[in-house]
């Protein structure tokens, strides 16, 4: 979390290798990704990372199924495996009913769940999500966050999520606050209930000054 | 200041303009080249023949006008694409407080600039190309260019400037109108409206596709069975079937294709094929009308180019068997008249004071018609349809005959032995062996001919293929009859043949061509009322070559313009589609699709988009050409030449489109 312009998107871009760092190193799965060759970078991106975007980033010409499949086909995955995996994730995210629909036939929340399915179908070690609930109402947000929790538990996926919303943040296990490009504070949920965690988050947010409007 | 903006705009958006510029330049270049034909050396040689000269000029002018309509439409269409693409940029000028009037001015100046540059480059290029065309012309006309000259046709330059000036003027007016109608809000939000895919239902797409295939196959079968007889209303129905078949084909093919490919998971689930398929489906489905038009236009072009080159080949070959006499003339006998001066060509020549030189070998003869017709003669060997065809093609009718003594005098000047016939013998002279099997069968099985009540033995076993005059029409059928033949004879024409002396060839040719031209211009009508028509062999050749040349020119001219038009329309559609699909490419990149894969996808899309209409057009053309084969007989050079032209232009457009789209996608993303 952090105020606008603090560098959250920049951090995600650096991790996802879209941007390059000027100093320091980024280590994921014991691998230093800051000095990988182009080929290795491409492979790292498509195998180890999953992306979820605020604007869903779904292709309007493709059905939900095809959108999810695309993440696998660009890795040249075996054909039999593709369908199996899609059905599996679809069931988890409860979108198997709408696999043959086009994005324009889906609600925002459904779209984001399809996008999430696409992000995790490759079984990445890290999922990067930049304000995934930004375009959703609170009910859809909650549904999405529930499925994130499920992903985290059942698939063991690490989810790195940017958000302005304290409620969304309260679903996390660990929160990093960023200000002016630096880590400013850190909260770990531990054994807190979500309610307790939420209150702690609120305190920091107030301290940071701003973004309070987003809470309610 | 505005001119500076305009110049910079043109420079900066050269990427957007490149297809536009390419089209304009090629159009000007081709336009110039073909209009410069009149001042080509080779044509100048032929211009001695006034009939040829006039008709060539008329034909080129007519075609030019038609072509400028096509090009005008194309240029306005292309320009419209550009304006649409720049709506937003123009909108920003407006928000910055620039009045519409000034924006119009910028656009005006831009159009002017592009027009000017393309005109200059096009004409320069045209001057180069026309030199090559000049060689082609010389080759077609069989003219030896012993003094090659670099030609710049001023009249063609002026014509190009005037025609294209008018077109550009129209484009300017059109732009002003468009701008004046735009509202600022629309310009800033010139958003990509998602083109609705019209056909999604799998069942219907299969149904429509099946229907289109049935229509096309039926049309093919019909045209192959009935041939291309324009007088036949059946052909009209076939054409309609073909057009609708093509239309349905493009309406359904991509949806149908998707359903098929979906079944083949190996292709469907490979790389970003899913995306490519959907893109193409989207494009072909929304542009099915223009795809149909382009396919039909390409079909026309291929057939046109092919036929044009082939007609030339056909003519070349037909000239081969006709070289024995250097000149022939005939007087059309008026059987109402008893006056020998009106019916005897020898008397006629005396009347107009024309005498043969000593070095010229000549023979007079008379041609008669018998009461027997060719159909009757061959009736046992012709099917009913063949009999009808024979009459239709002017190959039937009463049989021609010449008397033995006349024939012998012809044989004498060609240096052959004279021939003896007894009173009940005849000779058969004919080229019909090449046309119908009936004649050789007849010659083999029959050894006599019954004329009226009398039986005549045929002296020869196979028809003698020796025409008795220099003639445009290479098909002939004559009987040589005894001098004292006593059946029904009607005098048809009186004739003479001439063979020049090699040493005085040019003088004789000059004398006879002048004589025949004068006769054609009715110069002797007040001396003698007789109608006499003559040709020297060279005149015949020139006329045939001239006709071949005209057909090839016009075929090439129209063909090239058609190719440019269709390729340009497709290129523009691709480019505008690319900017509309930018969001999708961006989305692909964000989920980790590499640039290499994206470029490959662009290549595949452009390829399929360009070659879908071409492939169907080629299938159409193959059928069309086979049907035409009844009229012309084809040879392989025509295939090579037509593919070359088509391939080069189409290829250039395909490549520039690929590069253009790649650039749009690459730069739209940064
Ligand atoms: N560590 C850093 N060092 C230098 N510049 C940085 C750093 N982090 C971010 N910036 C710069 O700060 C600007 C804003 O960063 P960024 O877009 O990441 O903000 P953000 O937190 O995502 O804001 P928002 O909440 O509005 O999306 C960018 O121009 C970026 O280059
Ligand atoms: Mg951001």
Detail the topology: elements first, then pairings.
The complex is a heterodimer of chains A (216) and B (670).
Chain A: H1 8-15, E1 27-28, E2 31-32, H2 38-48, E3 49-52, H3 64-73, H4 79-92, H5 108-120, E4 126-130, H6 138-155, E5 158-162, H7 166-169, E6 174-179, E7 182-188, H8 194-208
Parallel strand pairs in A: 3-4, 4-5
Antiparallel strand pairs in A: 1-2, 6-7
Chain B: H1 2-12, H2 14-35, H3 41-46, H4 50-85, H5 87-95, H6 100-141, H7 154-181, H8 184-188, H9 202-226, H10 233-263, H11 265-268, H12 273-286, H13 288-318, E1 327-332, H14 340-343, H15 345-351, E2 361-373, H16 374-378, H17 384-392, E3 398-403, H18 404-413, E4 425-430, H19 438-445, E5 448-451, E6 454-458, E7 477-481, E8 489-499, H20 505-520, E9 532-536, H21 537-580, H22 582-590, H23 595-628, H24 636-667
Parallel strand pairs in B: 3-7, 4-6
Antiparallel strand pairs in B: 1-8, 1-9, 2-3, 2-8, 4-7, 5-6
Helix pairs in contact in B: 1-6, 2-4, 2-6, 2-7, 2-21, 2-24, 4-7, 4-21, 6-7, 9-10, 9-23, 10-12, 10-13, 12-23, 13-21, 13-23, 13-24, 21-24, 23-24
The structure holds adenosine-5'-triphosphate and magnesium ion (MG).
Magnesium ion is lined by residues 8-9 of chain A.
Q: Label the structural class of chain B.
A: alpha+beta
Low-pLDDT residue intervals, each spanning 5 or more residues of chain B = 191-195
Q: Number of helical segments of chain B?
A: 24
Instruction: Report the span from N to C terminus of chain A.
Output: 17 Å
Cofactors and ligands: adenosine-5'-triphosphate, magnesium ion
Shape of chain A: globular
CATH topology of chain A: Rossmann fold
**DSSP strand (E) fraction of chain B?**
5-15%
Number of helices, counting only DSSP H or I runs of 4 residues or more of chain A:
8
Number of strands of chain A: 7
Uncertain residue segments of chain A: 211-216
CATH superfamily of chain A: P-loop containing nucleotide triphosphate hydrolases
Overall pLDDT score of chain A: 86
Shape of chain B: elongated
Relative strand content of chain A: 5-15%
Largest two-chain interface: A-B, 24 and 24 residues
Task: Output the strand order for the largest sheet of chain B.
Answer: 5-6-4-7-3-2-8-1-9
Give a short account of the largest sheet of chain A.
Answer: 3 strands, parallel
* Average pLDDT rating of chain B: 82
């Amino acid at each position: 979390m952090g105020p606008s312009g603090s560098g959250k998107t920049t951090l995600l871009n650096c991790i996802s290798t879209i941007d390059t760092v000027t100093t320091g190193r980024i280590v994921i799965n014991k691998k230093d990704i800051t000095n990988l060759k182009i080929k290795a970078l491409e492979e790292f991106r498509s195998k180890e990372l999953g992306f979820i975007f605020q604007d869903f980033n779904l292709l309007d010409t493709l059905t939900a199924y095809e959108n999810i499949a695309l993440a696998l086909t660009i890795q040249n995955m075996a054909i039999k495996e593709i369908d199996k995996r899609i059905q599996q994730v679809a069931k988890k995210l409860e979108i198997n009913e709408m696999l043959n629909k086009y994005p324009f036939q889906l609600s925002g929340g459904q779209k984001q769940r399809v996008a999430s399915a696409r992000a995790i179908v490759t079984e990445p070690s890290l999922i990067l999500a930049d304000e995934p609930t930004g375009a959703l109402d609170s009910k859809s947000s909650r549904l999405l966050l529930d499925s994130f929790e499920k992903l985290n538990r059942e698939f063991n996926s690490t989810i790195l999520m940017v958000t302005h919303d304290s409620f969304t943040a309260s679903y996390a296990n660990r929160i990093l606050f960023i200000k002016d490009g630096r880590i400013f504070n850190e909260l770990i949920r531990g054994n807190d209930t979500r309610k307790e965690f939420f209150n702690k988050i609120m305190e920091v947010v107030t301290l940071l000054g701003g973004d309070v409007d987003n809470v309610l | 200041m505005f001119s500076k903006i305009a110049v910079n705009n043109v420079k900066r958006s050269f990427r957007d303009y490149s297809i536009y510029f390419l089209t304009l330049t090629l159009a000007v270049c081709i336009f110039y080249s073909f209009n410069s034909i009149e001042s080509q050396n080779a044509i100048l040689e032929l211009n001695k023949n006034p009939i040829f000269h006039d008709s060539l000029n008329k034909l080129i002018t007519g075609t030019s006008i038609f072509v400028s309509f096509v090009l005008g439409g194309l240029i306005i269409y292309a320009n419209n694409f550009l304006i649409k693409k720049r709506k937003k940029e123009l909108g920003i000028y407006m928000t910055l407080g620039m009045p519409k009037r000034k924006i119009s001015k910028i656009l005006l100046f831009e159009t002017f600039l592009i027009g000017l540059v393309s005109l200059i480059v096009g004409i320069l290029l045209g001057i180069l190309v026309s030199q090559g065309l000049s060689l082609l012309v010389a080759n077609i006309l069989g003219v030896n260019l012993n003094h090659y000259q670099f030609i710049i046709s001023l009249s063609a330059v002026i014509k190009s400037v005037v025609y294209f000036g008018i077109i550009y003027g129209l484009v300017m007016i059109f732009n002003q109108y468009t701008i004046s109608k735009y509202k600022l809000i629309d310009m800033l939000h010139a958003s990509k409206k998602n083109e609705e895919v019209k056909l999604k239902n799998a069942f219907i797409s299969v149904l429509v596709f099946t229907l289109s295939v049935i229509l096309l196959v039926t049309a093919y079968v019909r045209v192959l069975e009935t041939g291309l007889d324009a007088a036949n209303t059946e052909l009209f129905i076939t054409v309609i079937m073909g057009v609708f078949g093509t239309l349905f084909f493009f309406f359904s093919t991509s949806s149908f294709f998707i359903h098929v490919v979906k079944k083949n998971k190996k292709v469907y689930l490979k790389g970003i094929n899913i995306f490519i398929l959907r893109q193409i489906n989207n494009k072909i489905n929304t542009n099915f009308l223009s795809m149909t038009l382009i396919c039909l236009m390409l079909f026309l072009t291929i057939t046109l180019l092919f036929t044009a080159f082939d007609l030339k080949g056909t003519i070349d070959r037909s000239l081969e068997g006709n070289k024995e006499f250097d000149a022939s003339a005939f007087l059309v006998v008026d059987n109402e008249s008893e006056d020998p001066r009106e019916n005897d060509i020898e008397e006629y020549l005396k009347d107009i004071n024309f005498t043969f030189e000593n070095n010229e070998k000549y023979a007079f003869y008379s041609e008669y018609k018998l009461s027997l017709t060719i159909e009757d003669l061959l009736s046992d060997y012709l099917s009913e349809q063949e009999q009808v065809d024979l009459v239709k093609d002017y190959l039937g009718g009463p049989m021609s005959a010449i008397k033995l003594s006349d024939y012998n005098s012809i044989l004498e000047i060609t240096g052959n032995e004279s021939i003896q016939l007894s009173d009940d013998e005849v000779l058969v002279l004919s080229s019909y062996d090449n046309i119908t099997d009936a004649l050789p069968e007849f010659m083999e099985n029959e050894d006599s001919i019954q004329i009226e009540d009398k039986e005549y033995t045929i002296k020869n076993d196979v028809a003698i293929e020796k025409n008795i005059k220099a003639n445009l029409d290479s098909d002939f059928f004559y009987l040589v009859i005894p001098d004292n033949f006593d059946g029904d004879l009607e005098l048809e024409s009186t004739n003479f043949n001439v063979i020049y002396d090699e040493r005085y060839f040019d003088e004789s040719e000059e004398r006879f061509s002048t004589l025949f031209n004068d006769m054609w211009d009715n110069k002797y009508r007040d001396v003698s009322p007789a109608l006499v028509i003559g040709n020297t062999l060279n005149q015949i050749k020139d006329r045939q070559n001239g006709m071949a040349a005209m057909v090839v020119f016009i075929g090439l001219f129209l063909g090239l313009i058609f190719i440019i038009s269709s390729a340009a329309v497709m290129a523009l559609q691709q480019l505008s589609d690319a900017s509309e699909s930018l969001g999708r490419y961006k989305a692909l990149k964000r989920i980790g699709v590499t640039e290499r894969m994206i470029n490959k996808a662009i290549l595949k899309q452009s390829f399929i988009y360009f070659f879908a209409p071409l492939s169907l057009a080629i299938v159409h053309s193959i059928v069309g050409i086979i049907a035409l084969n009844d009229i012309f007989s084809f040879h392989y050079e025509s295939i090579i030449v037509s593919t070359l032209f088509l391939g080069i232009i189409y290829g250039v457009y395909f490549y520039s489109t690929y590069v253009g789209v790649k650039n749009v996608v690459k730069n739209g993303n940064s």
